[in-house]
Amino acid sequence: MNYWLVKSEPDAYSYQDLVDEGTGMWDGVRNYTARNHLRSMKKGDLVLFYHSRQGLEVVGICKVVKEAYPDPTAEKGDWSAVDFKAVKLLKKPVPLSAIKEEPSLQEMPLVRIGRLSVMPVTEAEFKKVLEMGQTKV
């Protein structure tokens, strides 16, 4: 299994929106590196859901339920989408400030490459964020 982190502005698409939909399509990614990460996701992979701009915190866990397919919102270009299902809201959101202060998370792409909207995380990073969020899968 692989682990990931995706970022979304909560006023555009929040974790609660994913919960309400049941299964949500992760589309609209227009960065080649992020697109390639979407294409690397496999069914069953677990994903940290991060609220960007407002909140700046990891708020939930979701999982990949449909692997990459052509993004139906792309008018041109070779873009991909995946489908996620909400798994669990974190008991305690984990703010970016706490992630940046945690020594074991200093190599996490969220800390090093802040603008990327889809990124891999290691199993150890995933587990540490869950521990900080007082949550178990």
Question: How are the secondary structure elements laid out?
Answer:
Elements: E1 3-8, H1 15-21, E2 23-26, H2 32-40, E3 46-51, E4 57-70, E5 80-95, H3 96-101, H4 109-112, E6 118-121, H5 123-132
Parallel strand pairs: 1-3
Antiparallel strand pairs: 1-6, 2-5, 3-4, 4-5
Written description of the protein model:
With 137 residues, this protein is of the alpha+beta class. It has a single domain (3-132), classed as ph1033 like domains (ph1033 like fold, Roll), CATH 3.10.590. It is 26% helix and 36% strand. It contains 5 helices and 6 strands; from the N terminus they run E-H-E-H-E-E-E-H-H-E-H. The chain has helices spanning 15-21, 32-40, 96-101, 109-112, 123-132; strands at residues 3-8, 23-26, 46-51, 57-70, 80-95, 118-121. It has a 6-stranded mixed β-sheet. Strand 3 (46-51) and strand 4 (57-70) form a beta hairpin. It is globular and about 40 Å long. The two termini are 14 Å apart.
What key attributes describe this structure?
137 residues, alpha+beta, ph1033 like fold, 6-stranded mixed sheet
Question: Between the first and last Cα atoms, what is the distance in angstroms?
Answer: 14 Å
Structural class: alpha+beta
- Rounded mean pLDDT score: 96
Helix count from the secondary structure assignment:
5
- Can you say what the CATH homologous superfamily is? ph1033 like domains
Instruction: Give me the Rg, rounded.
Output: 14 Å
CATH C-level:
Alpha Beta
Query: Total domains, how many?
Result: 1
Query: Ranges with pLDDT <50 over ≥5 residues?
Result: none
